[in-house]
## 1
Amino acid sequence: MQPIYLKQLELGPMQNFVYLIADPTTRDAVVVDPAWEIDKLMQVVEQDDLKLRAALITHFHPDHLGGDFMGRHIQGAAELLQRNIPIKVHIHKTEADYASHIAGLSSSDMVRTDGTEELVVGSLKVRFLHTPGHTPGSQCFLIDGRLVSGDTLFIGGCGRVDLPGSDPAQMYDSLVNKLKRLPEDTVLYPGHNYAERVTSTIGDEKRRNMYMRFDRVEDFLGLMGY
């Protein structure tokens, strides 16, 4: 692995992780899922002399993107744009319309991704992986042996598949046919602080996470109640 700047920030009332990832030399940076406490986030950006180049969204739910949620409005990514920070919000094309409706982002604010992209940030390359299941456009980000997984893969668990737009069969495919095939030493950075530790590896999850241990989709669906 090459040296990178990667800061895991637990922000908001739902144990969300927001990530800052940067080239440690050029200080070019991306932020992943900036939904909460934008003032605190920007304090870190300024203190660490980072230059934000993009916002990457794992999926459109308001606790990761911003928008109306449980009777309150979370400004999220839209607030970054209101501060005249010259970035685009990268979100999967299947969820861009939701992002416009829920978070108030315009089409020109967004880059619609399809899971084949590589974003260059300084000397870093961020690879986009489309991992539907929790939502139709869920995506993970792979940076030189490090996986930021949003709500697709948790430490010891996976995202819910009983919500509007969820699909348990797609979740199985994303976990078993995509993420499980990554190198075992890939470091996992999940979207929430739901475990006793804040990082894991794909190898550990293959051995310990029951959601990644099924050989047949029918058995996975049975576990999920389908």
## 2
Amino acid sequence: MSISVQADRFPLARAFTISRGSKTEAAVLTVRVHREGVMGCGECVPYARYGETLDSVTAQIEALPPDITRHNLQDALPPGAARNAVDCALWDWQAKFTGAPVWQLAGLPRPRPQTTAYTLSLDTPDAMEEAAREAAHRPLLKIKLGTPEDMPRLEAVRRGAPASRLIVDANEGWTAEIYADLAPHLLRLGVEMVEQPLPAGADDMLAEIERPLPVCADEAVHDRASLPGLAAKYDMVNLKLDKAGGLTEAGAMRAAVLEAGLDLMVGCMVGTSLAMAPAVLLAQGAKVVDLDGPLLLSRDRTPPLSYADDKVHPAAPELWG
């Protein structure tokens, strides 16, 4: 078997901003595995928040032995972007080699279209109100917040999209005091869930207060090893392939999250349809699906995932799986 990896850049339709900064393109790594005349593909998004760069993740992948399998890959690489891209490429290879779809090989339910959130990035209140108005036809909007001046943004989005369901992602940007002040207003404005309001590692306050608004762990959780203790502080877990390190671990983690009595959210980094395709398999039955990465791009893979009727549809075999 041979493994190749290349950096690809996909421009965004507009600048995407969260509390940690802005980007104008999705910088991804595309992995291809070749064996017995068959090629499988996977994608990852190296994430600076977790100490990853395009170069560091490329080096991890290129150091793998040529006879790597999905099973020994789990010990060869830690959870993260590198393992995700290789793991998903190996799943895709197996599907194409055997002629059986990945969902069947993995013992997952047949995937069906899922309603996905659509993300509004952090901006001025006026800009966010306009973005909300443009997206007001969508049933579920995810608002990027995470500053001390977020109330005007919340009010503006609700004005712009009065009928849409809302969830909020602070990306670790609030203090305990800011969140305590904002929480009643989130409820008043009909927000259904808040994602990672406090920094991971500084979130103990969440175990000490009532949580009438469900709180979802994102940066505070990666793979199954990070699950113990979460239930005291969070009500939901955001499962992302790039954090868990691929579909193999993410499938096991999905079962562990539900067994722990936590609700499931399936999310993504800003990537292409190749990155979303395996996540659609995990999203079946999730309480919140947030797989809108390709909707934020000005150019996507060919063939892309279909986004119709505000739903993300399962991938065609030509794309993945």
## 3
Amino acid sequence: MSPGTPPPAASDERLAPFVAASAAIDRDHPAVQLFATEVRRSRDIDTMRLAYETVRDRYPHSMDIDTQAVSMSASDVLRHGHGICFAKSHLLAAVLRACGIATGLCYQKLGGGERSYLHALNAVWLRDQGRWIRLDARGNKPGVDARFSVGTEYVAFPIQADRGQRDFAEIHAQPLPSTLGALRQSRTVEELARCLPGDMNAADRRQAETASFRFDHL
């Protein structure tokens, strides 16, 4: 996979937003801190792998298990035991940030025809290589085989450009406003499925314009 935009070693100042806490990426919540203690290893790469595989496999995608509670924050996923891709990306970001590893959020536009929707995954900073990789913790199922890799990328949904799908190249320090809005306004996963954002809105695009990093190859 080609590296993202940064120079060989990005400055601590540029990476600072990618280790910060927020309402959705609640890195300092006691449950997230406990999770971080569980997955932290002496080498960053081992921490990344274990955290990723735990989020991917231990916490199923809400729509795969036909449940109704909506998780928004990282701690919500730990409390409910599940979340959709947006919430699971918040959890992986929070636990890795709690371990001192810079982690961002990336998005794809999926679907096609009359129905499209955004999908969230993570960008993780490889400090020793000075580059970002994408990891997709959505959760595997028949037809979905996302994996941890620092070389060849294995995301849940490879893009089908002929259907109007696309990768957004920006690496965000915080979730898109549209995705947070959908999670906050939905009382059930059924409601959430009806109001998933189909594309970036104006607020999302303004946030994307200020992104410090991006993947040049997308």
## 4
Amino acid sequence: MERLGPQDASFLYLETPSVHQHVGGLAIVDPSTVPGGALRFADLVAVIGSRLHLAPRFRQKVVFPPINTVRPLWVDDANFDLDFHMRRAALPSPGGRAELIDYVQRVISRPLDRTKPLWELYLIEGMQDGLAAILTKVHHAMVDGIAAIDLASAMYDFAPSAHVLTPPPWEPEPEPDRATLLGDAIREGITHPLGGLVQFANRALQAPSRVAAQIGEVLGGLREILGGGVLAPEGPFNRPVGPNRRFAMVEAPVQTLKDVKNALGGTVNDVVLATAAGGLHGLLQARGEPTRDRVLRAMVPISVRADSERTALGNRVSSMFVDLPIGEMGAKRRLRQITDRTRYLKESNTAVGAEFLINIGTWAPPTIHAMAARAASRARLINLVVSNVPGPQVPMYIAGAKLLAQYPIMPIAEHMGLSIAVTSLAGTMAFGITADWDTLPDIAVLAQAMEESLASLRKSAGK
């Protein structure tokens, strides 16, 4: 048994019939690199099945203790059945982007089955130009963005030849009975807070100046966060969400964003934020909404995963809260304002303060932790999420099929209906836009506006 961390448990606490807390990815692959030119479902099952031992969590399920005093546990699923988790679908003719998006929207609008390991994988056939797609859906309690990239690196190959590994035999650990779970919950409920206090006291005694400095960083970060105002500005995406999702895709070569960054300054992530901000301006302009001097606050996740944790699943994330300028302005000026803002945030301690808030469940009982998580999700703390997860920029293959792009799929919050994410893999920056069905019926307008925003940045960079 392994207990979920506070961040991981939060995603279970936040889940409701309308708010599904799964992440995912839509990989577009070219099967022409497979012998015979077709990606067979049986071959994909063989490759994935041979590598499950590299990610043991994918054969485990969540078990909740009989009393709500401690966080849930990961336990082996003795009835694990790979056939349940790996599925096959075909698009109707003509198998273009519209048909693909329609299918993806339907799949991501359904919750995962909590009685089984929290993931699904779909091979989508019948696409135009002989392409195929692989849609993955994984509960956010299992992975953050970097963990998902690490998982993809384990499942993909760096050469066209498909390697089916010989996994070690797997014998599931017996699932604990109710009495064992109850005893463990009582013991953990008593020892966990005491253990945390003892650990903190030992650290303070061994390195008092370092602990004092860390406390100062946390307090400074909290002041920075609260100093900007607790509530975000009113935004068009802050409304109660329903269970159904919309999805859209935008893509560009990684080199394009690097060229903009090199010519105009900032980082690749700043260019991502500027692309999103320009797209939001275009969306609101198309809706006839005012944009003059307007900002929308984006939560920008930041990995705080140490090198030693690179292959571990779970969540190790902090955040920046970036006010995106969405008024009428040139692309160069928009990027400069974002670059100045993110540089200031990085030099401050906001990420440290945000990590403290995210991990406050380490000290809080699960009941209070769950209530706090739900209260935070209902407050207007942010207007949207913008996430950037970099990955290997080399050719990648799965079951012999070459990866062309991997579009990320993000969850949304109970009163926040838009998430924009981008994954850079194999030379392509693939933006995935996930939104509540009723909040963003014009999601295609946002996607088109983001393409135009990036084109304006590229023109400003002279590229």
